[in-house]
C-alpha cells in the first residue's frame, strides 16, 4: 500500500508478521507488486535508521503462542474448519468448497482462515497480538458470529428492497454482497421507499 509521509516510529505497530518475498513483478514505471508469505508472528523491540542506505531496520523477537488447549471439541481443528465453512457458505458457497488447508496444526488452520477472511485490519491486528491460542480461537468464532449477523441483516434488507421495487424489463437487479440496481434506457425505477 502506498502511503505518503510515513513516520516509521509513529505509524509502525509493535506486533506484526515476518514475511518472505515470494515474487516481485514490475507493474508500471517504478511500481512493483510483491507477493509475500507470512513466516512468523513477531514483536518489534527496536527500530533504527541507517542513513547511508536510507533504510530502517528493526530488531524483533518471535512471538510464541501458548498452545495449551482444553480437551474440548470447541477448540479442535474440525470445529474451526466447520465454523469457517459455514461462514463461507453465507459469503460464497463456491469458495467454501475450494478453500482448504492440509494441516493438523490447529494454529496453522486458524491463521489460514484469518488471513483469507474479510475481517478488518484492526481485527486482524488483534489476532496477531494475541499470544494465547484459546483466546485467538474464541475471538475468531466471535468475529464470524458478528459478521454472520451483519450478512443476515444485509440479506433481509436486500429482500425487502427487492420486494418493494416494481421491476420492469428495463431494470437489472443484482443481489449479493450488497444491492446493485442497473437502469437501462433511462426508465424510472419505483420503490416502496418515500423521501421524508
Largest sheet: 3 strands, antiparallel
What order do the helices and strands follow? HEEEHHHHHEE
How far the N terminus sits from the C terminus, by CA atoms, comes to 41 Å
Beta-strand content estimate: 25-35%
Q: What is the number of strand segments? A: 5
Principal-axes shape call: globular
Helical stretch count? 6
Arithmetic mean of pLDDT: 78
Helix % is 25-40%
Derived from helix and strand composition plus strand pairing, the structural class reads alpha+beta
Cα-based radius of gyration, to the nearest Å: 23 Å
What keywords describe this structure?
single chain; 196 residues; alpha+beta; three-stranded antiparallel sheet; 6 helices; 39% helix
Can you describe this structure?
With 196 residues, the chain is an alpha+beta fold. The protein is 39% helix and 26% strand. It has 6 helices and 5 strands; from the N terminus they run αβββαααααββ. It has a 3-stranded antiparallel β-sheet with strand order 1-2-3. A two-stranded antiparallel ribbon has the order 4-5. Strand 2 and strand 3 (55-62) form a beta hairpin. Helix 2 (77-91) packs parallel to helix 4 and helix 2 runs parallel beside helix 6. The longest helix has 32 residues, at 133-164. The model is unreliable at 173-196 (pLDDT under 50).
Helices and strands, with pairings:
Elements (H helix, E strand, L loop, with lengths): L7 H4 L3 E14 L2 E20 L4 E8 L14 H15 L1 H6 L7 H11 L4 H9 L3 H32 L6 E4 L5 E4 L13
Antiparallel strand pairs: 1-2, 2-3, 4-5
Helix pairs in contact: 2-4, 2-6
Amino acid at each position: 500500500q502506498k502511503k505518503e509521509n510515513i513516520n516509521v516510529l509513529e505509524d509502525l505497530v509493535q506486533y506484526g508478521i515476518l514475511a518472505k518475498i515470494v515474487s516481485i513483478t514490475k507493474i508500471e514505471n517504478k511500481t512493483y507488486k510483491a507477493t509475500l508469505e507470512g513466516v512468523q508472528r513477531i514483536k518489534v523491540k527496536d527500530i533504527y535508521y541507517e542513513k547511508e542506505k536510507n533504510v530502517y531496520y528493526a530488531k524483533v523477537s518471535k512471538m510464541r503462542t501458548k498452545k495449551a488447549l482444553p480437551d474440548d471439541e470447541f477448540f479442535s481443528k474440525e470445529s474451526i474448519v466447520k465454523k469457517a465453512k459455514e461462514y463461507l457458505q453465507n459469503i460464497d458457497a463456491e469458495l467454501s468448497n475450494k478453500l482448504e488447508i492440509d494441516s493438523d496444526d490447529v494454529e496453522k488452520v486458524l491463521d489460514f482462515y484469518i488471513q483469507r477472511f474479510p475481517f478488518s485490519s484492526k481485527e486482524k491486528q488483534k489476532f496477531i497480538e494475541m499470544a494465547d491460542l484459546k483466546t485467538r480461537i474464541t475471538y475468531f468464532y466471535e468475529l464470524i458470529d458478528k459478521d454472520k449477523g451483519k450478512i443476515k441483516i444485509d440479506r433481509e434488507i436486500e429482500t425487502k428492497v427487492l420486494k418493494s421495487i416494481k421491476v420492469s424489463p428495463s431494470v437489472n437487479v443484482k443481489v449479493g454482497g450488497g444491492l446493485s440496481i442497473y437502469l437501462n434506457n433511462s426508465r424510472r425505477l419505483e420503490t416502496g421507499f418515500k423521501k421524508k
